[in-house]
């Protein structure tokens, strides 16, 4: 291909290829003068540049080519932080890359990737428009209760200090609770407790999993576990979130579009994807995310999205029928596994069936399931065998997807997002086993990630179309959070639910649960 004409704008951030002859005037920040066959803006990290140059929002998204997103879709393992790293990743043996300037690097990556991605639906219909949605979410932020977090942090500090004293009294002296080495010496050498984990070079494990198994051996164990939970809650979420509250009393997280191999978004500074909900204290953190006066928060959460996707992808008639009928899938599975009538399913049976349902998606072994449920390995094997007898197409799918991954070297989501699996060729059993688990789960988890992204794009477009002041402010795993003026709440809630449930046509219905509240905790 002939060398493409290029013109830079503003601090070498982007490169414009124009299909126009003669002079091309662009608003405010750029002025390109070139003749070529392409008509698009070539840049690296569209979302970041939208913040830096708001005028970019006026550019037709069909004319945006983000080299960072294209590289990520090419192979999500190539997570390049910057343009030079991206070029080195794509052209590892090209020595000219090291001395190239921004324009040359952008042109080189574009020439390599544009044919593959310029009309790619993941790139065009999902990732590029999502960049603008996420940029708006980051700029708007989520309202936080500064005074409430400060008070909660003080309470946690008092609790932590009290736990420290109790632990020291329980073992007979003070030591550095945050030192695994000193903690190990106290537990295993002084108190002579039986270790629950294997011994390493630094001693026996004192991580949460090991300590959980040692709970009955000494009263200090429960105190230590609670000390760690409270300390993390304070440092990460109570005191930790305070430093991120901006002068507008909002927290403006940054969503990373290229950090995960599954396509899921992550967030940083602060990480709002990890807000704890299972513990009572952890759930309390959510009450400090507020709706401003005159507004409410609307939370929409996909119900059992991964199991529904498993039913669709595997094409299992029994699983599909259960979801179409609106049955309690865990109760249905429990009835089959335990051989009882649905009305005879106990809460414990349902709990065990739920562990099997979700465990199957992640390729759980009988050994791991036995540990999770506190049952024998033989019993766990019976549960799994009963599950596959109930849902035979799921068994076939799981077997075939691993074979396909070995043959092709990758797996895909329903929307064509790929994850390559070199681990499947490893001579190391543990590495190979990891690759097999990824092959089982990635098409499902990755498709769930694609669905929520498409839903975000659709919701943002519908809010704009209906001229609503409601804003999309957070995405956490399978849920979306809106901030809506009270007089728009009903309209926005129905719009949100409809968008999420209609974002794709599957053999099973997508189901979304809605909740409205003054703070995030009220939405649970």
What would you say this structure looks like, in words?
- The protein has 524 residues and is of the alpha+beta class.
- The chain has four domains: 7-140, no CATH class; 143-251, Taq DNA Polymerase, Chain T, domain 4, CATH 1.20.1060.10; 280-304 and 449-523, Alpha-Beta Plaits, CATH 3.30.70; 306-441, 5' to 3' exonuclease, C-terminal subdomain (DNA polymerase, domain 1, Orthogonal Bundle).
- Helices cover 50% and strands 13% of the residues.
- It has helices at 46-52, 67-74, 83-90, 102-117, 121-140, 146-171, 180-190, 208-212, 219-242, 280-285, 305-314, 317-324, 329-338, 347-361, 366-373, 377-390, 392-408, 429-465, 489-501; strands spanning 7-9, 14-17, 23-25, 31-33, 40-43, 64-66, 142-144, 199-200, 203-204, 250-251, 254-256, 266-268, 289-290, 295-302, 410-412, 418-420, 471-476, 479-485, 512-517.
- Strands 1-2-5-6 form a four-stranded mixed beta sheet. A four-stranded antiparallel beta sheet has the order 17-18-14-19. It has a three-stranded antiparallel beta sheet with strand order 10-7-13, with no helix packed on it.
- Strand 8 (199-200) and strand 9 (203-204) form a beta hairpin.
- Helix 15 packs across helix 16 (377-390).
- The longest helix has 37 residues, at 429-465.
- The N and C termini lie far apart (56 Å).
- The relative contact order is 0.10.
- The model is unreliable at 1-12 and 19-37 (pLDDT under 50).
């Amino acid at each position: 291909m002939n060398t493409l004409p290029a013109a830079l704008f503003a601090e070498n951030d982007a490169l414009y290829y124009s299909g126009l002859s003669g002079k091309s005037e662009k608003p405010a920040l750029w002025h390109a003068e070139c003749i070529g066959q392409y008509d698009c803006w070539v840049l690296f990290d569209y979302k970041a540049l939208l913040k830096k140059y708001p005028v970019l929002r006026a550019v037709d998204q069909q004319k945006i080519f983000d080299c960072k997103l294209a590289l990520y879709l090419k192979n999500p393992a190539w997570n390049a932080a910057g343009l030079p790293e991206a070029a080195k990743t794509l052209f590892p043996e090209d020595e000219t890359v090291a001395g190239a300037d921004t324009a040359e690097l952008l042109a080189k990556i574009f020439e390599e990737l544009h044919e593959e991605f310029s009309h790619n639906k993941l790139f065009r219909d999902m990732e590029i428009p999502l960049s603008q949605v996420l940029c708006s979410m980051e700029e708007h932020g989520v309202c936080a209760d500064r005074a409430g977090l400060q008070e909660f942090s003080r309470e946690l500090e008092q609790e932590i200090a009290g736990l420290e004293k109790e632990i020291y009294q329980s073992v007979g002296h003070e030591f550095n609770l945050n030192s695994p080495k000193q903690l190990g010496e106290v537990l295993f050498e002084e108190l002579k407790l039986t270790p629950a984990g294997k011994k390493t070079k630094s001693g026996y494990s004192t991580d949460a999993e090991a300590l959980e198994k040692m709970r009955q051996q000494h009263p200090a164990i429960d105190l230590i576990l609670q000390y760690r939970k409270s300390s993390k809650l304070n440092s990460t979420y109570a005191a930790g979130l305070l430093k991120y509250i901006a002068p507008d009393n909002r927290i403006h997280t940054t969503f990373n579009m290229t950090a995960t191999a599954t396509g899921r978004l992550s967030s940083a500074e602060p990480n709002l994807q990890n807000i704890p909900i299972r513990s009572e204290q952890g759930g309390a953190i959510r009450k400090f995310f507020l709706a401003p006066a005159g507004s409410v928060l609307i939370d929409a959460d996909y119900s059992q999205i991964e199991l529904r996707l498993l039913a669709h992808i595997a094409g299992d008639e029994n699983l599909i029928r259960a979801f179409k009928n609106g049955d309690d899938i865990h109760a249905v599975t429990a009835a089959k596994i335990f051989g009882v009538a649905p009305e005879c399913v106990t809460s414990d049976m349902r709990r065990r069936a739920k562990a099997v349902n979700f465990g199957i998606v992640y390729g759980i072994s009988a050994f791991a399931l036995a540990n999770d449920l506190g049952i024998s390995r033989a019993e766990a094997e019976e549960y799994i065998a009963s599950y596959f007898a109930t849902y035979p197409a799921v068994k076939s799918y799981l077997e075939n997807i691993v074979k396909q991954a070995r043959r092709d070297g990758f797996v895909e989501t329903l929307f064509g997002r790929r994850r390559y699996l070199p681990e499947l060729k490893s001579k190391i059993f543990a590495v190979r086993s990891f690759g097999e688990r990824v092959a089982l789960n990635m098409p499902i988890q990755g498709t769930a990630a694609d669905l929520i992204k498409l839903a975000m794009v659709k919701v943002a477009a519908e809010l704009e179309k209906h001229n609503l002041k409601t804003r999309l402010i957070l995405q956490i795993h399978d849920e979306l959070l809106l901030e809506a003026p009270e007089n728009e709440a009903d309209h926005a809630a129905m719009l949100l639910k409809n968008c999420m449930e209609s974002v794709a046509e599957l053999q099973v219905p997508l189901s979304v649960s809605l909740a409205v509240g003054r703070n995030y905790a009220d939405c649970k």
